[in-house]
């Protein structure tokens, strides 16, 4: 067990309950995903985990030991990539990585090698002498990551590392996270982007209002809800009675029709596409494109909380 | 050592702080020089009442003091000769007067309890008088035949209190006090490094602080390293400022550079400590804190006489505690004391006061920062 959080509660001044009996476990070698909308308590959970924040109740263990601000032996094995880019504006890329690595690694030669490995890992080669203000948003995020992982920690915590980056940089970051995991690090990854978490995480905790609302691997999470399929059809003409027609399809849970876009949500079982095509043919309904998708983590969140993850 | 070196790089590359800490005092010194350069001291002077024990003083000195003019018949001194030395001593202790002049063992003694503008004027006059007196006495005893020429030269060339700063007069004059206040302000601008120090190691104040606090390096160790780096850089900057003022602009500082350097060192420490305390006390962004610190240091400097020399004495007369809690005041008093006192007791007292203030600021900072976990980040 790498991390064990038991019944942690945290209330901010003003009475906002940020964590409400939060419990979870992170196992060695996992990519552990923390998914939840903004304000759900993900960052508070991370800061409590790192012994930066006071909490009223509960206990936190890391590497089997009780976490405390003075546990430098535990801290030495943790790397953090904070939500906001935390680098010295006055230092170059290589100076920043070397500085933060230096807080963990005193041996100069070893540090030099680790800094170079971090630069190679985050593909910052060629930018070593750049000041942060000269870097694009994506490169800056990669620098933020390099500063957090250069010392080769056993546990890496990435708090929303892809916020505000372009898709290309985002993919590079996600590939990097997978690679770090393959190299042996246990990862805690927080995000409000469900597709990221779905793409890379082995085990997922979905949070809302400081509580774990559901947890498990992505297959288990998706199986836990009644939704089996979402079909979206772009109709070429306006049909006033279309909702009445599709409601009769087997296993239909919910239907909507707006701006000629027809959405049909069906329960688990066989796909409704053949039935839908038959209906269109029989009723002479003209359609353009048809998409069918399996449930996403957003659907899981939506079904459990009644609201969208992006709300 | 690597952390120390990197911290020095960070300090030197924070351009806004470098401007306020190093460039602004240089520019202000230059503007003072340019502004004062075209002024003679009589622009600043008003007629001053001076208490003397007439019976113990040479008549020639009394006559000189009675006759010296600021300009156009306006007298520099009005002499009050009604009291004995003992009576004057009682008045001085009771703070009814700021000083008095008396003679003892063929020496003229100017007894004061505090430095100030009036005291500076009287001291400058007496110094100049004694120098001329010594010169004339020497000529009379060694080479009396040249006496008429010497007296003629003195009549032509000696004018009390008309030397401007560009003349690099080895005797301090009243305008020098402005430059002392300037150095005091420069010392206090070390407060910027105090703000940065606290901000950069506190998770509830900056993202950099988060990285620092989750690292296995002890926070106190980093604070000490950051403090020493700031002290080194700012102290060197202050020494360069003093050298610039003394040797480039020709400001008439004392020749005892060691003592000036010591004030600067203690002043820089108190500046960093003040900044650290304010940073720990005030909630807000680094820019907000820097704005507060800029205001605070300028107000403290103003109260020590930077903008209007007499303000220091008005404020300290009305509220004496200010003298002890304003580091800028202790700094200027320490500088002034190098000119006024020969036994350096006032100098030492002000240095000790600065050390005490620094310790208090550091202690308060510790109290504010001692928690290892935060309520919120």
Report on this structure.
The complex is a heterodimer of chains A (311) and B (377). With 311 residues, chain A is an alpha/beta fold. Chain A is built from eleven helices and 14 strands. Chain A has helices at residues 42-49, 72-75, 93-102, 108-121, 137-149, 167-182, 194-200, 218-223, 242-246, 273-283, 297-305, and strands spanning 3-11, 17-26, 31-35, 57-62, 65-66, 78-81, 155-159, 186-191, 203-208, 211-216, 227-235, 252-258, 261-267, 287-293. Chain A has a six-stranded mixed beta sheet, with helices on both faces. In chain A, strands 2-1-4-5 form a four-stranded antiparallel beta sheet, with helices on one face. In chain A, strands 12-13-11-14 form a four-stranded antiparallel beta sheet. The radius of gyration of chain A is 23 Å and the shape is elongated. The two termini of chain A are 34 Å apart. By secondary structure, chain B is α/β, with parallel strands linked by helices. Chain B has 16 helices and six strands. Chain B has helices spanning 2-13, 15-37, 59-67, 85-93, 117-142, 147-157, 176-188, 191-200, 207-214, 219-248, 257-281, 286-303, 309-318, 321-325, 327-340, 345-369, and strands spanning 48-52, 69-71, 74-75, 77-80, 99-104, 107-112. In chain B, the strands form two sheets. In chain B, strands 4-1-5-6 form a four-stranded mixed beta sheet, with helices on both faces. The chains are: A alpha/beta (311), B alpha/beta (377). The interface between A and B is medium-sized, with 34 and 26 residues.
Q: What are the main properties of this structure?
A:
heterodimer; A: 311 residues; alpha/beta; Rossmann fold; Alpha-Beta Plaits; 2 domains; 6-stranded mixed β-sheet; 4-stranded antiparallel β-sheet; B: 377 residues; 4-stranded mixed β-sheet; two-stranded antiparallel sheet; 16 helices; 6 strands
